[in-house]
Fold:
Amino acid sequence: MTKNKIALVTGGSRGLGENMAIKLAEKGLDVLLTYRSNKEEADKTVAAVEKHGQKAYAIQLEVADTGSFDTFVDEVKKVVNSHFGSEKIDFLINNAGIGINAMITETTEEQFDALVDIHFKGAFFLTQKMLPIMADGGGIVNISSGLARFSFPGYAVYGSLKAAMETLTKYQAKELGGRKIRSNIVAPGAIETDFGGGVNKTDEGKRTAIASFTALGRVGLPDDIGGVVAFLCTDDAKWVNAQRIEVSGGMMI
Structure:
């Protein structure tokens, strides 16, 4: 019997990550997800994946703490073997993130370092540590933002780091091509989640503004994003590599 492919989603307990996990399950993949602190939400996502007939498991991970990655990888190895009956994972989705809105003149070094550690350094070294237990022919999906293409005041560090991830994606595709591992990056536009304090859900003025400069005329939903990520983890996307795919409804075009 052919084993299901396994995708690891960081930050998979809620928001975009939760939707990615469910959409991956709908595509027939088993899902390993990480959460930072909210195990209850992670367990709900696991249950949602299992409702689709797929295996799922949640492991705690602080993406900013690169010193914890060796222990994390050891745990992944054990779980992949005991819970999924496999030796390798097939896909890594670097989704975990935080939002800090601060103007350049007001950004503190602490805020800067926190964003770097999660959005670039953490993703870089977690991928490095996971590569030995990734199957050849698998893939990496990184997450960017429309803010790497257009600019809004207060997101200089965040947007710059997402641009860095877009460049890193190309290097991953080039360097891992020998193992037939693809690397792509998905760039959501403004999405209605709890990210960054949830303003895209609660601030009606901001929601109206976003709708006004989005061709499809509304704020995005998590359900707009997860399916695109899941697609990149299927054979239908086997020839898609080193690509930035913006999923923003036509924002700021």
User: Anything to note?
Assistant: The first strand starts at residue 6 and ends at 9.
